[in-house]
Amino acid sequence: MMESATRSARNILTGLHEVMASKNHAQGKLNHVVNIIGEALTSEVCSIYLLRDGALELFATRGLNEAAVHVTRLGLGEGLVGTIAENVETLNLDEAAAHPNFRYVPETGEERFHSFAGVPIVRSERAVGVLAVQHVEPRKYEEVEIEALQTVAMVLSELIANADLIDDPEVGSGIETGTIVLTGLPLVKGAAAGVAIFHQPNVRIEHTVAEDIEAERQRVYSAFDKMREQIDRMASQIDFGTGGEHEEVIATYKMFAYDEGWSRRINEAIDSGLTAEAAIERVQQRTRMRMRQIDDPLLADRMHDLEDLSNRLLRIVSGQMSTAAQLGLKKDSILIARNLGPAELLEYDKRRLRGVILEEGSLTAHVVIVARAMGIPVLGRVRGIRHKVRDGEMILLNADEKSVIVRPSASTEESFQHQLVDRQKKKARYAAMRDDPAVTKDGLPITLMINAGLRDDMSALATTGAEGVGLFRTEFQFLISATLPQRERQQRFYRDVLDAAGDKPVIFRTLDIGGDKALPYLKDETSEEENPALGWRALRLSLDHAGLMKTQARALIEASAGRTLNVMFPMVSEPWEFDAAKAIFEGQIEFLGKLKKQLPSKVRYGAMLEVPALAETLDVLLPKIQFLSIGTNDLTQFLFAADRADPRLAERYDWLSPAILRFIKRVVDATEGYGVDVAVCGEMGGRSLEALALIGLGIRRLSITPAAVGPVKAMIRSAEHAGIQAKMTELLASPPQNLRSALSVWATAQGIETG
């Protein structure tokens, strides 16, 4: 067993350095390498597989049958070796045959070996080979041994690339010449056109083995100092508003830049004998592999921030500093990156940067929060975009439609530009309607409110003319924080929101976490759930963590001193859950009253109807509440048993389905006579045709995205309530095969503006 990963890796690298400096041919060097590694790890088998002609070929081995060399070939994803290369991941198994992807290769003679460990050999972010060790006795390899293998794999990458033994990872990238259409996940809505700009070229590491370890260490220290200066300078130059969540994002980002653990790991890699560039890349590769193993989206986002910093540090230490931001944008541009950190986005000229396309990305990523504050559309999870477009080619980005058009025809580009002009004209017209009331032609007023979750969102009240915030998602503050927000911080945040709203109401929804919104610092059983959307989330989780809910209740109560507090509980399944949540708030009110604290002038309680079961007990719940919000996003997936996060089902179930509409109508009818405000606060209400149907069902209050206020208001002012009510009664009594189409045709004939 090795005394340490550092010492073992250094010994191996010393041997590899001698091999690389020798005059042996490439095959002889690889044969020597497997012996050095096998002896250092006291492993009976050490093998190197390299990617040639699209398959992983056994190039050298110590311990397997020599006759299998250049004979055994495995496809990507085939066997353990193919799995490592396809997923660019590490495997460490005490019993190889027990792995579901194990494949027995008779000619190798490996049947007597039980343990197996393998790491990818990476070049240009792709696996170009696999380094594997095996042992007769069943045992897991120690972490220090795996680290030594990963370090050696880096050096092998340089050796085999220089010897021209592998497929060029840059060849066969699949770049076409004609128009292609790609799809992705909308992260920030909007549309834009511009030329493709790649965020950064790959930094090609030419030398991996250090000649002078102390000199390499000083290079890294200097690079860290320079990187931290850059981050501090950017943080002080933020110019898109104050007091927003993006500032908290940058603060968290700075925390990573000053993290001693990260710099220590790079130092350890240098101690093992790597150059500064190779040490940073070594730690970065390990981060990427960990990212692939993380199911928690919040932890994955934190790893993306670290990836961003690694890229920055690598560029500084290698002297390859020029990103597209530093070189400057000459034209309207669409930025393309595998992923992007918030600080990197802030470097770009907002006058020229029109949109961002990411191969990865998630709704809760820090860069998304910053992009939203900058007003830049972002489309994420566009697979292979970096290998399907060239720098400078025209791109049409429509995040609203989840699409990217690469190399459009002249006619397509012209049509898209006309659409962008039309969008601007519509925006101007909607802005001019800001102070006009949302009243139908026959005089029925409809209350339009916005959904919000960030401090910056509150500015939309003024720009849209909305009558308040019908849904304030309090969990956003928790999702972007590295630690649990303390009560005082929550209180300041809620007070700022109320101050920004002025005399307009804000309905605060208590924490809706769990499911697809997991908190890395709140450990519970949700991480192991098979169906998290149906599991321990939202109000269920809050009631289980009573301390968490008491803290939020007190923060909301104190922030609302002298004002009306509107509080809403998410995912109420049965009336007793509402009772339990309300009791927590009432208990905190009593506690603060005894402390002579100023209390809200009034507290109004409400519930979200997302779980269909609640509709069966509305007669019990309604006397206890002042308002009811129908959350159509979750309600739809629960009614149809369809996970809304599953792309195969995303477009399958229509909001204008008779099942959904009849359900909502039944809820509206059940509330009559109780004096309860009923609203729809899901995405359904933000679509003009769907909003028209909801008004026909008796909905008088909508809480929607700020961007939807203008179009929905225009629809309301062009419609007559009596007519739509009669039409919806007719359609639900005898539903046509396509209710959406029937309603759309009718609305067009009536001159109602729905698109």
From TrEMBL:
The keyword Membrane does not apply. It is found in: Cytoplasm. Its cofactor is Mg(2+). It comes from the Bacteria. GO terms for biological process: phosphoenolpyruvate-dependent sugar phosphotransferase system. Its EC number is 2.7.3.9. Residues 25-170 form the GAF domain. Belongs to the PEP-utilizing enzyme family. This is phosphoenolpyruvate--protein phosphotransferase. The gene is ptsP.
